[in-house]
Amino acid sequence: MIPLRRNIKEMAGYVPGYQPADAAAYIKLNTNENPYPPSPRVLEAIMAEAGEGLRRYPDAASRAPLEAAARLYDFPPDWIVMANGSDELLNNLIRAFAAEGEEIAYVHPSYSYYATLAEIQGARVRTFGLTARLELDDFPARYEGKLFFLTNPNAPLGFCFPREFIEELAGRVTGMLVIDEAYADFAEEHSLDLVRRHENVVVTRTFSKSYSLAGMRLGLAIARPEVIAALNKIRDHYNLDRLAQVAAAAALRDQDYFRGCVENIRATREWFSNALRELGYEVIPSQANFVFASSPDRNGERVYQGLFDRNILVRYFTDPLLAHGVRITIGTREEMEKTVEALRDIR
Ligand code: PMP
């Protein structure tokens, strides 16, 4: 028998969203990707970098994208760390703050990868539920775990917690409050300013959704320099390859293109949410690039299967808390019109 650590032997491992072998055969609305291509500037930057220089290591400090991010978000560069997807940051935050046997927590339902990362580390996991009004249920006046992950906007439900509540949470959490803002670019509000006021707040962002760069694996975190210094000690020293670095810098600099994509997706989200309601679906008002919707018969798997049979991929959940609905990524207006047609068909 190979001498595996007990928790690795016992853990199931994370299963990412289904990737069909032939993605082009589907309208793919199951992993919250962006329906628009990355900015043309990003593609130009990647093409220019993809030459003989690839034999050299990349800049270990990722200075070009770091400086672009510092300018955009108005934080000094030592308040920011770049990463190979925001998943890398979530992993490194657990490694930095929660030793084996110590506790981390997150909201259920939200991003279940936190639990997998905690299992790898051997940290204990606690979850806090939601009330029917989508408020945190039974969250203590003082939470003493090492990390509390707040996915905001929530995934897979798409709603945001009120800002005053998040600020209050920063005081109630004695460990680190990690605000996972993977979808914040599609929302009305974000929490970056809390980083300036609370030393225990970390905000994570991804380029996978609003910047159309899921395939490049790019994310960033903003926090106090002491926190960023710790995350820099832990990360792979060359965590961003050369192509990812130029892509990230170009994406952050082309804000006009970025805003155009985000505005289109938000407008389509509102149109699609209303179309779903007209079909009798219950739709949680979304601040993200997806909606969570329940059919009148409250059977997510049936809706998933009906759409799958029509070459449209969405996400359903076996978790009893979520089995009544499906999560549908917002694609182009045309893709969503086809989805509405298909839903009418399978009613
Ligand atoms: N947080 C949340 C809430 C997500 O849904 C995702 C995407 N699955 C991530 C983080 C990870 O994103 P990335 O592609 O940047 O690793």
UniProtKB/TrEMBL annotation:
Fetch the PROSITE patterns from UniProt: AA_TRANSFER_CLASS_2
- Catalytically driven reaction(s): L-histidinol phosphate + 2-oxoglutarate = 3-(imidazol-4-yl)-2-oxopropyl phosphate + L-glutamate
User: What Pfam family is a match, any one?
Assistant: Aminotran_1_2
Source organism of the structure: Geomobilimonas luticola
Record-listed E.C. numbers: 2.6.1.9
> Which superkingdom, per the lineage?
Bacteria
InterPro entries linked to this entry? Aminotrans_II_pyridoxalP_BS (IPR001917), Aminotransferase_I/II_large (IPR004839), HisP_aminotrans (IPR005861), HistidinolP_aminotransfase (IPR050106), PyrdxlP-dep_Trfase (IPR015424), PyrdxlP-dep_Trfase_major (IPR015421), PyrdxlP-dep_Trfase_small (IPR015422)
Which parts of the sequence belong to the Aminotransferase class I/classII large domain? 26-343
Q: Which GO terms describe its molecular function?
A: histidinol-phosphate transaminase activity
Checking PANTHER family in the record gives:
HISTIDINOL-PHOSPHATE AMINOTRANSFERASE, HISTIDINOL-PHOSPHATE AMINOTRANSFERASE 2
Which cofactor does this sequence's record say it needs?
Answer: pyridoxal 5'-phosphate
Q: What residues bear N6-(pyridoxal phosphate)lysine in this entry? A: 209
- What is the protein name stated in its UniProt record? Histidinol-phosphate aminotransferase
Q: Amino-acid biosynthesis as a keyword? A: yes
**Keywords, alphabetical:** Amino-acid biosynthesis, Aminotransferase, Histidine biosynthesis, Pyridoxal phosphate, Transferase
Q: In which pathway does it act?
A: Amino-acid biosynthesis; L-histidine biosynthesis; L-histidine from 5-phospho-alpha-D-ribose 1-diphosphate: step 7/9
Q: Does the keyword Amino-acid biosynthesis apply?
A: yes
The record's note on quaternary structure and interaction partners says: Homodimer.
Instruction: Provide the family line.
Output: Belongs to the class-II pyridoxal-phosphate-dependent aminotransferase family. Histidinol-phosphate aminotransferase subfamily.
